[in-house]
Amino acid sequence: MVLSTCKIMLKGKKEIYKKICVVALPIVFQNIIDAAVSSADVLMLNYVGQSAISAVSLANSMVGILFMFLYGIGTGIAMLAAQYFGKGDMKTIEKVEGIGHKFALSVAALGAVLCLAIPRLLMRIYTDDEVLIDIGARYLVFIAPGLLFWAVSAVYMSILRCIGKVTTSTVLEAIALICNVGLNAVFIFGLFGAPKLGVIGVAIATTISRFIQLMGCVVVSVFMKPGVSLTFKTMFQRHKLLEKDFITMAMPAIGNDLAWSLAFSAYSAIIGHLGDDAVAAYSIVNVVRNLGCVMCYGIGMASGIIVGQILGEGNMEEGVEAGHICLRLSVITGILGGLFVFAIMPVVLMLAKLTPTALDYLKFMLYINTYYITGTSVNTCLIAGVFRAGGDSKFGFKCDVIDMWCYAVPLGLLAAFVFKLPVKWVYFLLCTDEFVKWPWVFKHFYSHKWARNITRDNV
Fold it and tell me: Which residues contact 354 (CB under 8 A, 6 or more apart)?
């Protein structure tokens, strides 16, 4: 009897591992392409100049706030969509998609207007260097239209991942990113008779590639059966119960991601006022860290989908077990990500065309990220994945607001501008943020209070 029970449990764990891998691997592949594109951007801008790299990095800190807002909306609708898919309710998923589009397009429209109307003012948040402000402002103006295309596709691809079409979502993202690299080369270097546009070319390439991605979403919506339609009519329909659920559960997730992205934006602003060498090193290390985090983000996103689907089926115990498996995988992928950063460090330092001071900063920052990625991996998996799978987004919101805005940002400001510590010390102190919150994150995880079925009947 005991042996039989053990066999059933082992079989159940294998099935969970299989489900996680099926969802995570395409997302990891997508993240690899995304990180490779960012690396290619930096490598190509490397030939334009250190100021170009710094300006685009700072401008993308502003765009990154919008990205995290859209990511929060995506994970918010995934909370509901994954559980309703586990329940087999596709009609409700289309209603959830409409709610997501309503919020995403509103935010993207606001971001586009700000980028077009006050780009220089936005850049002044991050730096007082007039050269960087001028370059970054032009970048923001040309990337503004792409924000609207991005908002629509981000919501639709989030829905695709929740209904088991992860590979389709990954292909759409891959097409956009490959187009982005090709167009970057054309506009930066003036290939095939095109003008050499430098930083403006990067923005134009991003906007065009996001439009291509949106067209791909339209094609998938028309021809993929069974699937979920890409339609805007549900945006204008009222679904009181679902909107209430979205606001109750998704808005804290959006607030969480916004607080997190604003904090990282504040980190960029702090580093941005410490000199061009610090900014250039920070720009490159962010790209390398993203490469090291591709598996971590894949496991984090997959954990939210798989755990959510299991909880939506009403299997609480299996959902908790899936959460524990995801945690173990996040630790492993975090360590592997750190080893990857350590392995490619010599190549990065050799290729980076920076001043000796900037290279020294870059080497130190890379060493920090050999362990920092593990903290990011675990927290992404639990806060943005497992907890949200059960509709528990309030904990993550409170945790990150306190950790980043009551601890990390004030610490960075004090270190940089009051105590005037060296750049390396400022960066080290900022990178303690992921580990300070671990005691509370683990305590909440092992309480299993996050494991809930949040679906409704007869929506």
Answer: 50, 277, 280, 281, 284, 362
For 108-164, the three-class secondary structure string (H helix, E strand, C coil) is: HHHHHHHHHHCHHHHHHCCCCCHHHHHHHHHHHHHHHHHHHHHHHHHHHHHHHHHCC
To which residue do tokens 């994954």 refer? 82
Cα(152)–Cα(173) distance, integer angstroms: 13
Angle 2-45/316-351 helices, nearest 10 degrees? 30
pTM: 0.75
Q: Could you give the CA distance from residue 337 to residue 343 in angstroms, rounded to a whole number?
A: 10
Identify the CA nearest to 157 among candidates 140, 138, 174, 144: 174
> Where exactly are the structural domains of the chain?
12-447
Among left, alpha and beta (phi > 0; psi -120 to 50; other), residue 315 is: beta
Which residue type does 302 have? A
- Reported as a single tens digit per residue, the pLDDT across 218-246 is 898 888 776 677 777 766 777 788 888 88
Token couple for 429: 């102190």
